[in-house]
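Hi everyone,

Forwarding the result from last night's run.
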Amino acid sequence: MSLFKSKSLPKAIVATAVALVVSTSALAHDPKMHAEKDQMNCEKMQKHMDMMGKMDHSKMDMSDPAMKAMMANMGKMKQMYQKHCVTDKSDS
């Protein structure tokens, strides 16, 4: 039996096309909807920075992939904290 003689092929093509259109269409909305949720919580970040400063790295296995990922994530958090929460008093 040939694929092109199958009755379910047109249905499959239509279903694939619909799925493709639905999955690639973006649902536009106002970015202000995220304004409150996306605000940096500097108090919470300060607590994380304090916790990271108190960690004893000598007890950590730095070759562990999970530890490497956590340390990379903490580095990104520190950069965000420095960028958004730490004020540079030398400019004034």
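The mean pLDDT is 76.

Cheers,
N.
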